[in-house]
Amino acid sequence: MAWSELAADASRDGPPAMRWWGWGDPAHPPALPAHALQFLRETVGVAPRPRPPVALGAVHLAPSGLSEQAASALRGILGTEGVRDDHGERVLHAAGKGYPDLVRLRAGQPEGAPDAIVRAASHEQLRAVLDLCTQFSVAVVPWGGGTSVVGGVAPLRGEHAAVVALDMGRMGEVLALDRQSRMVTVQAGIRAVALERALAASGFTLGHFPQSYQYVSLGGCAATRSAGQASSGYGRIEQMVLGLRFVAPAGDIELAAVPASAAGPELRRLLVGSEGTLGVIDELTLRVRPAPRERVYEGVFFTDFAAGVDALRELAQHRACPDVARLSDEAETRMSLALAPVGGIKGRLGRSYLSLRGYREGCLAILGFEGEAEELAARRKRALELARRGGGLPVGRSPGEAWLEARFSAPYLRDELLTQGVMVETLETATRWSNVRALHRAVSTAIVDSLSAGGTPGLVMCHVSHLYETGASLYFTFLARQREGEELEQWRAAKQAASRAILDGGGTITHHHAVGRDHAPWLEEEVGGEGVAALRALKAELDPAGIMNPGKLLP
User: Fold this and answer.
1) CA-to-CA distance for 253 and 238, rounded, in angstroms?
2) What are the residue ranges of helices labelled H in 201-259?
3) Contact call for residues 19 and 26 (beta carbons, < 8 A)
């Protein structure tokens, strides 16, 4: 098939089906087997009876506040199919996928909803929509896949008359592939799955696979500076973005895709990560790489978390870094084995074998290698040598293959936990190698203490991933029985305790989830008052009326 045909095929991919009250495909089967439910009942407790979400028709929304004059003008730009204000569409765009979002949605009481959903199909329409929204004082919330877990797509109107969700789903074409330069140019609304399929047919990959991969748009990834699960090998999204076109209320910015430039401060880095608060990305040129011919994912056990951290540092600093490197602490390892299907990873690893070798209470690392066979073999050999030198026990490919098979399934599990009355939340940070263990202890302790103080002792887990020469990320997951009627207060206390511990402990408030609404109060503490003032000045220049994504990023 010719590239033009592949590109056209990619552009026809509509947004995947998404549960309005949770994650992913509505047809996906429940993800909590009986033995897993029993484990949770014994460790954190569950609700006396399941708590399913309300029916879609029972979700309460205020009437649309968009004036008929503004709505008519938008329809004149986009056509009737490009402007929607029906109940289902407004509910679907009422929130992202963070814990407080889902608690409110499942109860039928979202915090708000956009007054309309608008879908531009071209740069010219996008430009006209921002001009019109400025004229009518309508706030604009850019919407890619709607997967934000930090309140990044909350339909806040601020001081404006109304708010619309700017859904980029109609701008999903692959525009060009430069094989020699290994670059692809796309419209920002393209889904990651569609782009990967088009690239694979020509022997390339972007290599960007966040846990939300099945739903994210590339524009959303760039706007939030996301990091895929294979970022240790392929890099983060900002390393992949070579050029872009940015549509701000004040005008357009076009940055050509050149390999390097010394033409002043790097504007691309100011716009990538701006989270829709300055404007919206409508085209991207991205670096691509040859698709790997071989993949090897395997498990390595370490006696404890400290030994595993030291081993990963050796890999990162001795040019033996896997494409995927993930080290679970003791608590996450125990839960992973407890929730694994009977005869699955738990059975294949064998507790008796681990006990005999002295690793019964140890930590499991997943190392994944991708590439050409010869290069992969050499890199893998070096990595396993360093892991063994650090006390690692290779346990074969079955743990790695099990992780690879289930890598995008965790959000489905969260839905089932909420139905069982279990709070489950994630948060992440990054710090230097010399501080990883201390920050791990500090944040874990802060969350444990907060949950215990609220009368719901929890389970706090963490893994290291996204390795760098100077440090690594820490990704925490915590579970506790929900305090019925006080779910948001319970969450807020734990979130604040963890955020305080992160910043006091020398970590960043976010490594890849972005700032959004949840982390905005902490931004000034990380970048300083003058840093925030500089961002405000940039917003005043590009978005003088303040219509773009109010209440996000800036405190």
Assistant:
1) 17
2) 218-223, 231-234, 237-240
3) yes
Per-10-residue mean pLDDT for the chain, 555 residues long?
49 69 89 86 94 97 97 98 97 98 98 98 98 98 97 97 97 98 98 97 97 96 97 96 98 96 94 98 98 96 96 96 97 86 54 63 94 95 96 93 91 94 97 98 98 97 97 98 97 98 98 98 97 98 98 95
Single out the residue of 35, 50, 38 nearest to residue 421, CA to CA.
Answer: 50
CA-nearest of 359, 361, 368, 369 to 392 is: 359
Q: Which of 300, 313, 327, 329 shows the shortest CA–CA distance to 443?
A: 329
Strands, sheet with 174-178, edge to edge from the N-terminal-most edge strand: 174-178, 183-187, 280-287, 241-248, 251-255
Which residues are paired to 282 by β-bridges?
none
The pTM of the whole model exceeds 0.85? yes
DSSP letter (8 states) at residue 54 = P
The per-residue pLDDT for 9 is 52
Cα(242)–Cα(255) distance, integer angstroms = 8
Task: Name the region of 388 (left: φ>0; alpha: ψ -120 to 50; beta: rest).
Answer: alpha
Q: Which residue has the tokens 């998404």?
A: 18
Q: Which two tokens stand for residue 476?
A: 């925490």
- Tell me 435's DSSP state: G
* Distance in angstroms (rounded) separating the CA atoms of residues 478 and 422: 10
CA pair distance 9, 4, nearest whole angstrom: 9
Question: From CA 151, how far away is CA 153, in angstroms rounded?
Answer: 6
